[in-house]
Amino acid sequence: MITVNLPDGTKVQFPDGTSRETMKAALAKRFGAKTSLPEQVGSGTSEGIARALGAPVDLMTGALNLGSRGINAVAGTQFPQIQNPVGGSSTLQKLMEPFISDAAPQTTAQRYGRRIGQEVGFGTVAAPVAMLAPAIGPAARANLPAYAGTSLASDVAAGTAGQTAREVVPDSDMADFWTSLLAGGGAGALASRAMPAYQPGMTRADVGMQADAKWSAVKAAPERLTDAATARLAGDVQASLPTSQLAPSAYPTAFRMAGETQALKNPSVYDVAELRRLFGDAVASNPQESRVGVGMKKATEDYLNRLTQGDVMGGDPTSAVNNLRAANELSARGHRYDAVDNKAMRAETRAATTGTGGNEVNATRQNVRTLYDRERDPTLRGQRKGFTPDEMAQMERIVMGTGPQNAARLIGRMAPTSGALPLMATGWGGAAGVGLAAAGGSPLAAIPALAGGIGFLGKAAAESMTKKEIQKLLDMIASGGNLKPGTARKASEAAVMQQLLSSALSGMPQ
Q1: CA quadruple 109, 158, 138, 483: dihedral sign
Q2: Does residue 57 sit in the same domain as residue 77?
Protein backbone atom coordinates (compact mmCIF):
# COMPACT_ATOMS: atom_id res chain seq x y z
CA MET A 1 0.00 0.00 0.00
CA ILE A 2 1.03 3.61 -0.58
CA THR A 3 0.60 5.87 2.43
CA VAL A 4 0.14 9.62 1.99
CA ASN A 5 0.71 11.85 5.05
CA LEU A 6 -1.41 15.00 4.92
CA PRO A 7 -0.40 18.28 6.64
CA ASP A 8 -3.14 17.86 9.29
CA GLY A 9 -1.70 14.49 10.35
CA THR A 10 -4.24 12.46 8.43
CA LYS A 11 -2.94 9.37 6.67
CA VAL A 12 -4.54 8.09 3.46
CA GLN A 13 -3.63 4.78 1.83
CA PHE A 14 -3.82 3.75 -1.84
CA PRO A 15 -3.13 0.41 -3.52
CA ASP A 16 0.35 -0.15 -4.92
CA GLY A 17 0.69 1.13 -8.47
CA THR A 18 -1.85 3.95 -8.10
CA SER A 19 -0.77 6.87 -10.26
CA ARG A 20 -0.02 10.27 -8.81
CA GLU A 21 -2.85 11.84 -10.83
CA THR A 22 -5.36 9.33 -9.46
CA MET A 23 -4.24 10.01 -5.90
CA LYS A 24 -4.47 13.77 -6.43
CA ALA A 25 -7.99 13.46 -7.80
CA ALA A 26 -9.11 11.25 -4.91
CA LEU A 27 -7.64 13.58 -2.28
CA ALA A 28 -9.14 16.64 -3.97
CA LYS A 29 -12.57 15.03 -4.02
CA ARG A 30 -12.31 13.88 -0.40
CA PHE A 31 -10.88 17.00 1.18
CA GLY A 32 -12.35 19.62 -1.12
CA ALA A 33 -9.15 21.06 -2.63
CA LYS A 34 -9.99 24.03 -4.82
CA THR A 35 -8.58 24.72 -8.27
CA SER A 36 -9.50 26.59 -11.46
CA LEU A 37 -9.20 26.24 -15.21
CA PRO A 38 -6.29 28.75 -15.56
CA GLU A 39 -4.45 26.94 -12.76
CA GLN A 40 -4.88 23.59 -14.47
CA VAL A 41 -3.80 24.97 -17.86
CA GLY A 42 -0.70 26.49 -16.26
CA SER A 43 0.06 23.23 -14.42
CA GLY A 44 -0.26 21.19 -17.59
CA THR A 45 1.98 23.63 -19.49
CA SER A 46 4.66 23.36 -16.81
CA GLU A 47 4.45 19.56 -16.91
CA GLY A 48 4.80 19.62 -20.70
CA ILE A 49 7.85 21.87 -20.54
CA ALA A 50 9.48 19.60 -17.94
CA ARG A 51 8.79 16.54 -20.06
CA ALA A 52 10.20 18.14 -23.19
CA LEU A 53 13.38 19.31 -21.44
CA GLY A 54 13.88 15.88 -19.91
CA ALA A 55 13.13 13.94 -23.10
CA PRO A 56 16.82 13.38 -24.09
CA VAL A 57 17.67 11.91 -20.71
CA ASP A 58 14.47 9.86 -20.68
CA LEU A 59 15.32 8.44 -24.10
CA MET A 60 18.83 7.49 -23.04
CA THR A 61 17.54 5.98 -19.79
CA GLY A 62 14.95 3.94 -21.63
CA ALA A 63 17.60 2.59 -24.00
CA LEU A 64 19.91 1.66 -21.10
CA ASN A 65 17.10 -0.01 -19.15
CA LEU A 66 16.08 -1.95 -22.25
CA GLY A 67 19.65 -3.15 -22.70
CA SER A 68 20.01 -4.18 -19.05
CA ARG A 69 16.74 -6.11 -19.18
CA GLY A 70 18.00 -7.95 -22.24
CA ILE A 71 21.28 -8.84 -20.54
CA ASN A 72 19.40 -9.99 -17.44
CA ALA A 73 17.16 -12.22 -19.53
CA VAL A 74 20.07 -13.84 -21.39
CA ALA A 75 22.78 -14.02 -18.70
CA GLY A 76 20.61 -14.34 -15.61
CA THR A 77 22.15 -11.23 -14.07
CA GLN A 78 20.32 -8.74 -11.86
CA PHE A 79 21.32 -5.35 -13.20
CA PRO A 80 18.95 -2.79 -11.61
CA GLN A 81 16.75 -0.45 -13.62
CA ILE A 82 17.56 3.27 -13.55
CA GLN A 83 14.81 5.18 -11.74
CA ASN A 84 14.27 8.96 -11.92
CA PRO A 85 17.59 9.87 -13.61
CA VAL A 86 19.04 13.33 -12.95
CA GLY A 87 17.99 15.63 -15.78
CA GLY A 88 15.03 13.45 -16.72
CA SER A 89 11.45 14.68 -16.87
CA SER A 90 10.64 13.37 -13.37
CA THR A 91 13.40 15.38 -11.66
CA LEU A 92 12.67 18.47 -13.76
CA GLN A 93 8.99 18.22 -12.91
CA LYS A 94 9.91 18.26 -9.19
CA LEU A 95 11.90 21.43 -9.76
CA MET A 96 8.82 23.01 -11.36
CA GLU A 97 6.43 21.94 -8.60
CA PRO A 98 5.87 25.58 -7.49
CA PHE A 99 4.15 26.08 -10.85
CA ILE A 100 2.20 22.81 -10.72
CA SER A 101 -1.00 22.57 -8.73
CA ASP A 102 -1.33 19.75 -6.20
CA ALA A 103 -5.06 19.77 -6.85
CA ALA A 104 -6.17 17.45 -9.63
CA PRO A 105 -8.67 18.68 -12.23
CA GLN A 106 -12.18 18.58 -10.83
CA THR A 107 -14.28 19.33 -13.92
CA THR A 108 -14.30 18.22 -17.53
CA ALA A 109 -13.08 21.64 -18.67
CA GLN A 110 -10.19 21.49 -16.21
CA ARG A 111 -9.19 18.03 -17.39
CA TYR A 112 -9.14 19.19 -20.98
CA GLY A 113 -7.28 22.35 -19.99
CA ARG A 114 -4.53 20.46 -18.21
CA ARG A 115 -4.12 17.92 -21.02
CA ILE A 116 -3.98 20.61 -23.70
CA GLY A 117 -1.53 22.55 -21.56
CA GLN A 118 0.76 19.51 -21.47
CA GLU A 119 0.85 19.36 -25.26
CA VAL A 120 1.36 23.12 -25.64
CA GLY A 121 4.11 23.10 -23.00
CA PHE A 122 5.91 20.26 -24.74
CA GLY A 123 5.59 22.05 -28.07
CA THR A 124 6.92 25.30 -26.57
CA VAL A 125 10.26 23.55 -26.16
CA ALA A 126 10.10 21.09 -29.05
CA ALA A 127 9.16 23.57 -31.82
CA PRO A 128 12.24 25.82 -31.41
CA VAL A 129 14.55 22.82 -30.95
CA ALA A 130 13.18 21.17 -34.11
CA MET A 131 14.20 24.26 -36.08
CA LEU A 132 17.81 23.10 -35.66
CA ALA A 133 17.07 20.05 -37.83
CA PRO A 134 18.00 20.49 -41.53
CA ALA A 135 14.70 18.98 -42.66
CA ILE A 136 12.61 21.48 -40.67
CA GLY A 137 14.69 24.56 -39.92
CA PRO A 138 14.97 26.33 -43.32
CA ALA A 139 11.24 26.18 -44.05
CA ALA A 140 10.32 27.16 -40.48
CA ARG A 141 12.66 30.15 -40.46
CA ALA A 142 11.31 31.32 -43.82
CA ASN A 143 7.86 31.88 -42.31
CA LEU A 144 7.87 31.74 -38.51
CA PRO A 145 4.20 32.80 -38.05
CA ALA A 146 2.94 29.90 -40.19
CA TYR A 147 5.27 27.45 -38.46
CA ALA A 148 4.35 28.58 -34.94
CA GLY A 149 0.64 28.84 -35.73
CA THR A 150 0.45 25.35 -37.20
CA SER A 151 2.46 23.93 -34.31
CA LEU A 152 0.13 25.52 -31.75
CA ALA A 153 -3.00 24.37 -33.58
CA SER A 154 -1.61 20.84 -33.74
CA ASP A 155 -0.79 20.89 -30.01
CA VAL A 156 -4.32 21.97 -29.12
CA ALA A 157 -5.83 19.29 -31.37
CA ALA A 158 -3.53 16.61 -29.94
CA GLY A 159 -4.40 17.57 -26.36
CA THR A 160 -8.12 17.68 -27.10
CA ALA A 161 -8.09 14.28 -28.78
CA GLY A 162 -5.90 12.72 -26.10
CA GLN A 163 -8.17 13.87 -23.30
CA THR A 164 -11.24 12.71 -25.21
CA ALA A 165 -9.66 9.25 -25.33
CA ARG A 166 -9.07 9.49 -21.58
CA GLU A 167 -12.71 10.38 -21.01
CA VAL A 168 -13.80 7.26 -22.92
CA VAL A 169 -11.10 4.81 -21.75
CA PRO A 170 -9.46 6.45 -18.68
CA ASP A 171 -6.73 3.84 -18.16
CA SER A 172 -5.63 3.36 -21.79
CA ASP A 173 -2.29 5.00 -22.49
CA MET A 174 -2.32 3.60 -26.02
CA ALA A 175 -5.67 5.20 -26.84
CA ASP A 176 -4.38 8.53 -25.57
CA PHE A 177 -1.14 8.19 -27.53
CA TRP A 178 -2.62 7.22 -30.88
CA THR A 179 -5.54 9.64 -30.84
CA SER A 180 -3.30 12.56 -29.89
CA LEU A 181 -0.73 11.57 -32.52
CA LEU A 182 -3.27 11.25 -35.31
CA ALA A 183 -5.30 14.32 -34.32
CA GLY A 184 -2.22 16.53 -33.94
CA GLY A 185 -0.75 15.45 -37.25
CA GLY A 186 -4.14 15.63 -38.98
CA ALA A 187 -4.88 19.13 -37.72
CA GLY A 188 -1.46 20.30 -38.87
CA ALA A 189 -1.96 18.70 -42.27
CA LEU A 190 -5.31 20.46 -42.70
CA ALA A 191 -3.76 23.76 -41.67
CA SER A 192 -0.93 23.32 -44.18
CA ARG A 193 -3.37 22.57 -47.00
CA ALA A 194 -5.19 25.80 -46.17
CA MET A 195 -1.97 27.75 -46.72
CA PRO A 196 -1.28 29.10 -50.24
CA ALA A 197 0.88 26.71 -52.23
CA TYR A 198 2.76 29.56 -53.88
CA GLN A 199 3.59 33.16 -53.19
CA PRO A 200 0.99 35.68 -54.36
CA GLY A 201 2.03 37.27 -57.63
CA MET A 202 0.63 39.92 -59.91
CA THR A 203 -3.04 40.19 -60.79
CA ARG A 204 -4.41 40.76 -64.29
CA ALA A 205 -4.97 44.41 -63.39
CA ASP A 206 -1.34 44.72 -62.29
CA VAL A 207 -0.16 43.29 -65.61
CA GLY A 208 -2.34 45.73 -67.54
CA MET A 209 -1.19 48.78 -65.59
CA GLN A 210 2.48 47.89 -65.95
CA ALA A 211 2.10 47.21 -69.67
CA ASP A 212 0.38 50.58 -70.19
CA ALA A 213 3.17 52.34 -68.32
CA LYS A 214 5.87 50.67 -70.41
CA TRP A 215 4.10 51.36 -73.70
CA SER A 216 3.66 55.00 -72.71
CA ALA A 217 7.41 55.19 -72.06
CA VAL A 218 8.15 53.61 -75.45
CA LYS A 219 5.79 55.98 -77.29
CA ALA A 220 7.29 59.02 -75.56
CA ALA A 221 10.89 58.00 -76.26
CA PRO A 222 12.65 60.55 -78.52
CA GLU A 223 15.00 58.06 -80.17
CA ARG A 224 14.71 57.79 -83.99
CA LEU A 225 16.70 55.59 -86.32
CA THR A 226 19.46 57.11 -88.45
CA ASP A 227 19.33 56.75 -92.23
CA ALA A 228 21.87 53.93 -92.11
CA ALA A 229 20.01 52.10 -89.34
CA THR A 230 16.74 52.46 -91.25
CA ALA A 231 18.29 50.97 -94.36
CA ARG A 232 19.70 48.09 -92.33
CA LEU A 233 16.22 47.38 -90.90
CA ALA A 234 14.77 47.12 -94.41
CA GLY A 235 17.64 44.87 -95.43
CA ASP A 236 17.15 42.53 -92.45
CA VAL A 237 13.44 42.19 -93.22
CA GLN A 238 14.17 41.52 -96.89
CA ALA A 239 16.76 38.88 -95.94
CA SER A 240 14.15 36.95 -93.95
CA LEU A 241 12.12 36.28 -97.13
CA PRO A 242 12.45 33.14 -99.31
CA THR A 243 14.74 33.57 -102.33
CA SER A 244 12.90 31.34 -104.80
CA GLN A 245 11.78 32.96 -108.05
CA LEU A 246 8.19 31.96 -107.31
CA ALA A 247 8.28 33.18 -103.70
CA PRO A 248 6.76 36.65 -104.44
CA SER A 249 3.76 34.94 -106.04
CA ALA A 250 3.44 32.37 -103.23
CA TYR A 251 3.75 34.98 -100.43
CA PRO A 252 2.37 38.21 -101.92
CA THR A 253 1.51 39.88 -98.60
CA ALA A 254 4.95 39.21 -97.12
CA PHE A 255 6.78 40.65 -100.14
CA ARG A 256 4.48 43.65 -100.31
CA MET A 257 5.03 44.45 -96.61
CA ALA A 258 8.81 44.02 -97.02
CA GLY A 259 8.78 46.39 -99.99
CA GLU A 260 6.89 49.04 -98.04
CA THR A 261 9.50 48.78 -95.28
CA GLN A 262 11.99 50.21 -97.79
CA ALA A 263 10.05 53.50 -97.79
CA LEU A 264 10.34 54.14 -94.03
CA LYS A 265 11.95 57.47 -93.03
CA ASN A 266 13.78 57.58 -89.70
CA PRO A 267 11.18 55.60 -87.72
CA SER A 268 11.08 55.70 -83.92
CA VAL A 269 11.67 52.64 -81.75
CA TYR A 270 7.90 52.47 -81.24
CA ASP A 271 7.39 52.53 -85.03
CA VAL A 272 9.68 49.50 -85.39
CA ALA A 273 7.70 47.73 -82.67
CA GLU A 274 4.51 48.49 -84.53
CA LEU A 275 6.12 47.13 -87.70
CA ARG A 276 6.70 43.80 -85.90
CA ARG A 277 3.03 43.74 -84.83
CA LEU A 278 1.89 44.49 -88.40
CA PHE A 279 4.00 41.62 -89.71
CA GLY A 280 2.16 39.38 -87.24
CA ASP A 281 -1.31 40.65 -88.08
CA ALA A 282 -0.94 40.75 -91.84
CA VAL A 283 1.47 37.90 -92.56
CA ALA A 284 2.02 35.50 -89.67
CA SER A 285 -1.70 35.12 -88.96
CA ASN A 286 -2.28 34.04 -92.57
CA PRO A 287 -2.07 30.21 -92.68
CA GLN A 288 -0.57 30.31 -96.20
CA GLU A 289 2.16 32.80 -95.25
CA SER A 290 2.57 31.99 -91.55
CA ARG A 291 6.07 30.55 -91.83
CA VAL A 292 7.40 33.62 -93.63
CA GLY A 293 5.58 36.03 -91.31
CA VAL A 294 7.11 34.44 -88.23
CA GLY A 295 10.55 34.91 -89.83
CA MET A 296 9.85 38.59 -90.51
CA LYS A 297 8.78 39.11 -86.87
CA LYS A 298 11.92 37.36 -85.65
CA ALA A 299 14.14 39.50 -87.90
CA THR A 300 12.55 42.65 -86.47
CA GLU A 301 13.02 41.42 -82.89
CA ASP A 302 16.69 40.63 -83.51
CA TYR A 303 17.18 44.04 -85.07
CA LEU A 304 15.73 45.82 -82.03
CA ASN A 305 17.92 43.78 -79.68
CA ARG A 306 21.05 44.83 -81.61
CA LEU A 307 20.41 48.59 -81.58
CA THR A 308 23.37 50.68 -80.37
CA GLN A 309 23.89 54.32 -79.49
CA GLY A 310 25.15 54.97 -83.00
CA ASP A 311 21.94 53.66 -84.59
CA VAL A 312 19.69 56.35 -83.14
CA MET A 313 19.49 60.10 -83.05
CA GLY A 314 19.09 61.40 -79.47
CA GLY A 315 18.21 59.61 -76.26
CA ASP A 316 19.33 56.26 -74.87
CA PRO A 317 18.72 53.26 -77.19
CA THR A 318 19.33 50.74 -74.40
CA SER A 319 16.60 52.21 -72.20
CA ALA A 320 14.19 52.46 -75.13
CA VAL A 321 14.73 48.85 -76.19
CA ASN A 322 14.47 47.56 -72.61
CA ASN A 323 11.18 49.38 -72.16
CA LEU A 324 9.97 47.96 -75.45
CA ARG A 325 10.97 44.42 -74.48
CA ALA A 326 9.17 44.76 -71.13
CA ALA A 327 6.09 46.24 -72.79
CA ASN A 328 5.94 43.39 -75.30
CA GLU A 329 6.35 40.76 -72.58
CA LEU A 330 3.66 42.27 -70.36
CA SER A 331 1.23 42.61 -73.26
CA ALA A 332 1.83 39.00 -74.31
CA ARG A 333 1.32 37.95 -70.70
CA GLY A 334 -2.03 39.76 -70.64
CA HIS A 335 -3.11 38.15 -73.93
CA ARG A 336 -2.27 34.66 -72.59
CA TYR A 337 -4.17 35.36 -69.37
CA ASP A 338 -7.24 36.58 -71.25
CA ALA A 339 -7.16 33.60 -73.61
CA VAL A 340 -7.26 31.11 -70.71
CA ASP A 341 -9.77 33.13 -68.69
CA ASN A 342 -12.06 33.35 -71.71
CA LYS A 343 -11.90 29.60 -72.28
CA ALA A 344 -12.76 28.89 -68.64
CA MET A 345 -15.64 31.38 -68.71
CA ARG A 346 -17.07 29.87 -71.87
CA ALA A 347 -16.79 26.38 -70.39
CA GLU A 348 -18.75 27.43 -67.31
CA THR A 349 -21.58 29.03 -69.26
CA ARG A 350 -21.62 26.14 -71.74
CA ALA A 351 -22.06 23.61 -68.94
CA ALA A 352 -24.67 25.78 -67.19
CA THR A 353 -26.82 26.05 -70.33
CA THR A 354 -26.51 22.42 -71.41
CA GLY A 355 -29.08 21.18 -68.90
CA THR A 356 -29.03 17.66 -67.51
CA GLY A 357 -25.71 16.11 -68.31
CA GLY A 358 -23.83 19.42 -68.42
CA ASN A 359 -20.28 18.69 -67.34
CA GLU A 360 -18.24 21.73 -66.39
CA VAL A 361 -15.03 19.75 -65.96
CA ASN A 362 -15.29 18.19 -69.40
CA ALA A 363 -16.17 21.54 -71.02
CA THR A 364 -13.21 23.23 -69.33
CA ARG A 365 -10.81 20.53 -70.46
CA GLN A 366 -12.03 20.70 -74.04
CA ASN A 367 -11.80 24.49 -74.19
CA VAL A 368 -8.30 24.64 -72.68
CA ARG A 369 -7.27 21.80 -75.01
CA THR A 370 -7.82 24.10 -78.02
CA LEU A 371 -5.13 26.45 -76.64
CA TYR A 372 -2.88 23.55 -75.70
CA ASP A 373 -3.11 21.90 -79.14
CA ARG A 374 -2.70 25.16 -81.05
CA GLU A 375 0.48 25.92 -79.15
CA ARG A 376 1.95 22.55 -80.19
CA ASP A 377 0.72 22.56 -83.81
CA PRO A 378 3.66 23.43 -86.12
CA THR A 379 1.24 24.56 -88.85
CA LEU A 380 -0.18 27.32 -86.61
CA ARG A 381 3.03 29.04 -85.56
CA GLY A 382 1.67 32.46 -86.40
CA GLN A 383 -1.31 31.97 -84.06
CA ARG A 384 0.60 30.83 -81.00
CA LYS A 385 0.37 32.82 -77.78
CA GLY A 386 3.88 32.02 -76.61
CA PHE A 387 3.03 30.04 -73.47
CA THR A 388 6.11 29.19 -71.39
CA PRO A 389 7.11 25.55 -70.71
CA ASP A 390 5.77 25.83 -67.13
CA GLU A 391 2.47 27.18 -68.42
CA MET A 392 2.24 24.39 -70.97
CA ALA A 393 2.88 21.81 -68.24
CA GLN A 394 0.10 23.32 -66.15
CA MET A 395 -2.26 23.28 -69.16
CA GLU A 396 -1.47 19.61 -69.61
CA ARG A 397 -2.50 18.99 -65.98
CA ILE A 398 -5.83 20.62 -66.76
CA VAL A 399 -6.40 18.83 -70.04
CA MET A 400 -5.31 15.38 -68.90
CA GLY A 401 -6.44 15.72 -65.29
CA THR A 402 -4.61 14.64 -62.16
CA GLY A 403 -5.22 11.32 -60.39
CA PRO A 404 -7.54 12.81 -57.73
CA GLN A 405 -9.36 14.87 -60.36
CA ASN A 406 -10.04 11.88 -62.58
CA ALA A 407 -11.17 9.76 -59.61
CA ALA A 408 -13.57 12.48 -58.45
CA ARG A 409 -14.81 12.93 -62.00
CA LEU A 410 -15.54 9.20 -62.26
CA ILE A 411 -17.46 9.23 -58.97
CA GLY A 412 -19.31 12.34 -60.12
CA ARG A 413 -20.91 10.39 -62.95
CA MET A 414 -23.29 8.90 -60.38
CA ALA A 415 -24.76 12.35 -59.70
CA PRO A 416 -28.37 12.65 -60.96
CA THR A 417 -27.39 15.81 -62.88
CA SER A 418 -24.80 13.96 -64.96
CA GLY A 419 -27.09 12.35 -67.51
CA ALA A 420 -30.31 10.45 -68.14
CA LEU A 421 -29.09 7.09 -66.81
CA PRO A 422 -27.87 8.44 -63.42
CA LEU A 423 -31.05 10.50 -63.20
CA MET A 424 -33.22 7.38 -63.55
CA ALA A 425 -31.03 5.24 -61.30
CA THR A 426 -29.95 7.53 -58.48
CA GLY A 427 -32.35 10.45 -58.93
CA TRP A 428 -35.85 9.09 -59.51
CA GLY A 429 -34.77 5.69 -58.31
CA GLY A 430 -33.23 7.17 -55.19
CA ALA A 431 -36.32 9.22 -54.41
CA ALA A 432 -38.50 6.14 -54.86
CA GLY A 433 -36.18 4.10 -52.64
CA VAL A 434 -36.28 6.69 -49.86
CA GLY A 435 -40.06 6.73 -50.06
CA LEU A 436 -40.21 2.93 -49.88
CA ALA A 437 -37.82 2.83 -46.93
CA ALA A 438 -39.80 5.53 -45.11
CA ALA A 439 -43.02 3.58 -45.68
CA GLY A 440 -41.63 0.63 -43.76
CA GLY A 441 -39.67 -1.19 -46.43
CA SER A 442 -36.05 -2.23 -46.23
CA PRO A 443 -33.52 0.58 -45.66
CA LEU A 444 -31.49 -0.98 -48.48
CA ALA A 445 -34.00 0.51 -50.89
CA ALA A 446 -32.50 3.94 -50.22
CA ILE A 447 -29.05 2.91 -51.50
CA PRO A 448 -29.57 4.59 -54.93
CA ALA A 449 -30.13 7.88 -53.12
CA LEU A 450 -26.87 7.39 -51.24
CA ALA A 451 -25.08 6.72 -54.52
CA GLY A 452 -26.54 9.89 -55.97
CA GLY A 453 -25.34 11.88 -52.94
CA ILE A 454 -21.82 10.47 -53.32
CA GLY A 455 -22.00 11.39 -57.00
CA PHE A 456 -22.89 14.98 -56.11
CA LEU A 457 -19.85 15.16 -53.83
CA GLY A 458 -17.56 13.69 -56.49
CA LYS A 459 -18.86 16.09 -59.14
CA ALA A 460 -18.39 19.08 -56.85
CA ALA A 461 -14.89 17.93 -55.89
CA ALA A 462 -13.85 17.48 -59.54
CA GLU A 463 -15.16 20.93 -60.45
CA SER A 464 -13.42 22.52 -57.47
CA MET A 465 -10.08 20.89 -58.26
CA THR A 466 -10.32 21.90 -61.92
CA LYS A 467 -11.05 25.51 -60.99
CA LYS A 468 -8.04 25.53 -58.69
CA GLU A 469 -5.84 24.27 -61.51
CA ILE A 470 -7.23 26.97 -63.83
CA GLN A 471 -6.56 29.63 -61.21
CA LYS A 472 -3.04 28.32 -60.75
CA LEU A 473 -2.46 28.64 -64.49
CA LEU A 474 -3.80 32.21 -64.46
CA ASP A 475 -1.63 33.15 -61.48
CA MET A 476 1.35 31.55 -63.20
CA ILE A 477 0.78 33.61 -66.36
CA ALA A 478 0.28 36.85 -64.44
CA SER A 479 3.48 36.22 -62.48
CA GLY A 480 5.59 35.83 -65.61
CA GLY A 481 5.41 32.14 -66.45
CA ASN A 482 6.28 30.53 -63.12
CA LEU A 483 5.30 30.59 -59.47
CA LYS A 484 7.52 30.74 -56.42
CA PRO A 485 6.70 28.14 -53.76
CA GLY A 486 4.74 29.57 -50.85
CA THR A 487 6.80 29.90 -47.68
CA ALA A 488 3.68 29.64 -45.52
CA ARG A 489 2.79 26.14 -46.71
CA LYS A 490 6.37 24.92 -46.47
CA ALA A 491 6.65 26.25 -42.93
CA SER A 492 3.31 24.72 -42.02
CA GLU A 493 4.39 21.35 -43.41
CA ALA A 494 7.57 21.60 -41.34
CA ALA A 495 5.39 22.16 -38.26
CA VAL A 496 3.50 18.94 -39.06
CA MET A 497 6.79 17.01 -39.01
CA GLN A 498 7.67 18.66 -35.71
CA GLN A 499 4.26 17.80 -34.25
CA LEU A 500 4.53 14.14 -35.15
CA LEU A 501 7.98 13.94 -33.56
CA SER A 502 6.72 15.80 -30.49
CA SER A 503 3.71 13.51 -30.11
CA ALA A 504 5.91 10.44 -30.38
CA LEU A 505 8.32 11.74 -27.74
CA SER A 506 5.65 13.07 -25.37
CA GLY A 507 3.89 9.71 -25.50
CA MET A 508 6.93 7.82 -24.16
CA PRO A 509 6.29 5.96 -20.89
CA GLN A 510 7.95 7.65 -17.91
Answers
A1: negative
A2: yes
